[in-house]
Amino acid sequence: MAKGKLLLGLDIGSSSAKICQLRDDHGSYTIEAVDRELFPVDAIVDGSILDRASLTRGIRNLLNRNKIKQKQCAIAISGYSVIVKRLRLSNMTDEELAQNLRWEVEQHIPYEYSEVVYDTVVLGRNPSQNSMDILLVASKREVVNDYISVAKDAGLDVKVVDVASFALQNMIETVYGAASLGSCSGVINIGASVTSMTMMTDGVTSFTRDITIGGNQITEEIQKKLGITHEEAESFKTGNVAEGSALIPKDVNDITCQVSELIANEIKRSLAFFYETSGRDKVDKLFLCGGVVKNSSTFRVLEKTIGERIQIANPFDGMQYNKKLYSRESLDELSLESAVALGLALRRNAE
Fold first, then answer.
1. Domain ranges for the chain
2. What is the mean pLDDT of residues 248-263?
3. Are 248 and 241 in contact, with CB atoms under 8 Å apart?
C-alpha cells in the first residue's frame, strides 16, 4: 500500500467545486467530509479560469462550512488542456527514458516544450520484443499553474496534480476492487462540460479520452428553447423545482433526451475507436457517474444508445461515514458528482 497521509480531494469543475476527505482505517475508508459548491455561470469556460475570485470564494466556503483544517490537497485537470498518449518505445532503463523524454514530448505534444509540464508511467516492458509501453501525460504549464493558484488563494497546498480520468480509475479500483473488474472495464464521468472516460485492461490503463460535452449542454438547450434563465433551466433539468413555482414543462423531457443522445453518441464513437485500436469488441464492465446520470431520462438514453451493459457507479459504496453529519440518502445525493473528488482523496502525500 502507498505510504503517506491521504490528501484532501478537490475537484474544480466548470460548474462547481467538490471536496472529499477520507480517513484510512487500516485499509478501509471512512468519509470525513464531502460537499459541493456551485460556481457562477462561465466562471470556467473550456477549461480556462475566467473568474478566479468566485472560484477562490467558493472553495473557501466549502472549507469553512465543513470545518476542514487540512491544507495539503490533490486536484485534477481535464479537457482540452490534457494530452494523454500511450506509446510503445524501445526497451530502456528509467534513466535512459528520462534522457529521451524531451524528444518524445516534442514529437507527440503540439505545444512548445517550454510551455508544458509532463510526466510518464511505465505500463510494462517486453524484453523478448525489446519494447516497453508508457503513458505520456502533458498539459500546458499556464493551465496547471492557474488551477494551483486558485487552490493556493483558497489557503490550500497542492501536492498532486492528477488527471480526471486517472482519478476515476483510482476510485473504481478502490471501491469495486481491481480483481473484480474483469479483463476489460471502463468508467465514464459525465461532468458539466467535459465527459471523461478511461478504459482498463487487466487493471492497466489502456485508453483515456476527454469529450468536451456534458450536462451543461442540456441546460443551455432548455434555456434557449424555452426562453428562460440559466437557473430556471438548471432546476428543470434536475427536477429541483422550488415549491409553489411553475410545473416543469413537458418539452423539458424531450429536450433532455435529444441532448442526452448527442452525449451518448459521442461516448459510443469513443468506445468504437477503443475497440478498433485495441482489437476488442466488448467491455466486461462499464461504469457511469456524473450528476447528469441522476436524470432517469438521460440514463435510459445512454443505456439504449451506447449499447453496452452499463452500471451506475456509487463512489461511496461500502464506506463508513459520520452518522451525525451524513445519512445514506445525503451521501447518495452527492455520490455521482463526487467520483473525481473521491479518486483524488485516495491520493497520498509522498513527502
1. 8-218+254-345
2. 91
3. yes
90-116 as b/e: b if 16+ CB within 10 A? eebeeeebeeeeeebbeeebeeeeeeb
Nine-digit cell at 308? 453496452
Q: Could you tell me where the beta strands, DSSP code E, fall in 13-130?
A: 16-25, 28-38, 44-45, 48-49, 72-77, 82-90, 116-126
- At the topology level, CATH places domain 8-218+254-345 in Nucleotidyltransferase; domain 5 (3.30.420)
- Enter the pTM of the model: 0.91
Is residue 334 within 8 Å of residue 35, measured between CB atoms?
A: yes
Per-residue pLDDT tens for 276-304?
A: 988 888 888 899 999 899 888 999 999 99
310-312 and 157-163 as β-strands: parallel, antiparallel, unpaired? Answer: unpaired
pLDDT at 242 over 60: no
In order of 152, 166, 204, 334, 350, the CA distances from 56 in angstroms are 9, 25, 35, 21, 26
CB 216 within 8 A of CB 15: yes
Q: Which is more confidently placed, 17 or 45?
A: 17
Mean pLDDT of the chain: 90
| pLDDT recorded at residue 243 | 47
Return the C-alpha cell found at 17. 467545486
> Rounded to 10 degrees, what is the CA torsion of 202, 206, 209, 214?
-10
